[in-house]
Structures are given as C-alpha cells and as structure tokens.
Amino acid sequence: MTGQGDSELGDAQDAAAFMELLRRLKKRSRLSFRQLEQRAADADDMLPRSTLYNMLARDVPPRPELLTAFVRACGDGDRVPEWLAAWDRVAGPAPGTTDRPATGAQQDVVTAQASRRESTRTGRTRDLGPGRLAIAALTFVLVAAAVTTALLRGDEGRDGSSGAPPRSFSAAPSPISGWVTIHLAVAPELCLTDGRVRDWRHTPLVAVQRPCKEAAPQSTLLELVRENLYRIQWHHPDYGKGCLQALADSRGAGLLEPMDDCEDGSLFRVEPSGELGKGRFVLRVEGRGCVGIAGSSQTEGAEAVMQRCTGKGRQVFIIRAAN
Q1: Which one, 17, 119, 181, 290, has least CB within 10 Å?
Q2: φ and ψ at 224, to 5 degrees?
Q3: Cis omega (within 30 of 0) on the bond before 130?
C-alpha cells in the first residue's frame, strides 16, 4: 500500500497529529482489528486487538515496538524508520534531558526485537547488562512505591475518565474509574460486553456475558460522575460510544442497552460485595435493583438484567483496569 507522504509525516509536531496519522494509516489499510492482529502474529509481532483499539482511541503515542508492529501490519513496513523518527520527535524526551541519541526509538525497537528473539530461542531472558539492570531495579522500586501509596490513599489516586492510558490493577477495596474490564466473579473468564438477546425479542445490542478474549474491539470506560455514581460507557470502532441504560419498556424491560446520548445512560452505584479488599462489587441502579445474569445462567451470551439485589452469584463482578 502507499505510505504516508514524507511531508505529512514530517509535519506532525505533536502527539495528537501523530496519532491522527496512525488512524489514517489504519483506515487506508482497510483491515479489521482482527486482521491486523493476525498479520502481526504472522510476522512474529504482538498486536492484540484490545491493545490496538485502545491505542487508536487516544492521543498518546504507543511504545516504539508497538508502533513498529502496527505500521508493518498496515503494510507500511518500508517506512518504519520514518515513523520511528517522527515518534522520537513527538514522544521522545525533550532536548537536553537525556543523552539518548535522536534515533532512540529505533534503537529501542532493535533491542526489544533482539531480546524477544533471544528469549524465544533460549527460553531465558537476555542479559541486559549492568546499566539497564540498574534502571530496571530503580523502575521496580518506584512502581512499588506508587502502588503502596495508591493502596494507602484509596480513592485519592483515581484518574477519572481523562483518556489516559489504562493502569495495571489488582483487585482493591475501592472501584477504579477509566478503561476497565468487568468480569464475573464466579467465572472470571467471562466479561460483561455487548451481544444480542437470544430470543430476539429486543433487537439492539445489549449487555451479555461472553468470554473476555472475545470482547474486543469494544472497550469499556467506567466514568465517575459524582461520588460512587458511575456511567458505564462502551466504545466500539463501528458503533461509536454508548452508555448503558437499564431499560424499563415492556419488550426490553430489565435489559441493559447502550444509549448514544450518555445523558440517557443509567447511573450505577458500585458497591463492595462480601469481604472488603477482595475487589468484588455489585452494580446497583437506584430503584431498579442490581445487575445480574438472567436466570444465573452460565451460558455464553446470557443477558445481563436488573434483578432484586442479593449480592451473590452472578450479581458479583470484579472490575480491573484494562491491560
């Protein structure tokens, strides 16, 4: 395929412009997220659909190795050096803050690829040398300190719905906000995502339980509206954004349907279920009850419906930050 023009890529001077060029590249490729994931895998690259969708939904440049895999999968592999040079310009450190050369992104990709190949060949992590080991050790200490501070502060560290890259998350007493996955506590491999009503009594998309690995390319955003009241937003490359509403009409009564206008979406209270610290929650809508799975079914595709709150079984969810 024909790549971006040199002048167009060279004119990108900030992260937003750079990410817009990536979105255009994906559009010109005419490839679905699933096809891009497969093409990357065929080239021994890692490009999960969910990661790819989240990447293109933000104005935050991806890591150099992710950028390289994406550009190759889109068919613009001959111009990877130009893309990496642009990455260094818009996402690299400011001049004077590091002694990394201007081609640092390219070197990062070469290093990461060599490490992956060596790990695959030997089954061991490649020796990074004393300098990189020191950096890795320092990074580990800083991350550990940040996690400890976040756990001590509880809600103070929540990042709202700012669109910042998702944080890694372990189950904690308080729900988080931002990009998340909502898992069934009794079946963590199942997630709350979109699907169709099994008997077709209601034709629009609704919330159902499906294997988490099949939830992409839809992403879920837990939006904090005010204290412990959230909107559950769905973002889909084909259908756009929708906020879940607990339906009251006769044919769809009790189902959860994404509404184009988020002002029509229901406000969910995210309340702990069981022992604090286990990271288990129920999703309650004032006056409507709690979200559960119809008939407590274990069947893939079973609908999420509003039920009388019991705080047990398939009314209990684990909320995790998207990876």
Answers
A1: 119
A2: -80, 115
A3: no
Distance CA 184, CA 263 (A): 27
Convert the pLDDT of each residue in 155-172 to its tens digit: 333 333 334 333 333 334
Dist CA 170 CA 48 (whole Å): 21
Position 255 pLDDT exceeds 90 = yes
Query: What is the distance between the alpha carbons of residues 66 and 23, in angstroms, rounded to a whole number?
Result: 14
Give backbone dihedrals phi and psi of 24, rounded to 5 degrees, phi first: -65, -40
CA geometry: angle at 300 spanning 206 and 177, to 5°?
55
